[in-house]
């Protein structure tokens, strides 16, 4: 059970980083 929870957290972290990356790129694309 602990292993699955850790996998879920890792997936969440990856998605979080990708969102931040896209948000930081948006202003550059807007120009």
Automatic annotation (TrEMBL):
The chain crosses the membrane at residues 12-30. Keywords: Membrane, Transmembrane, Transmembrane helix. The keyword Transmembrane applies. This is DUF4044 domain-containing protein.
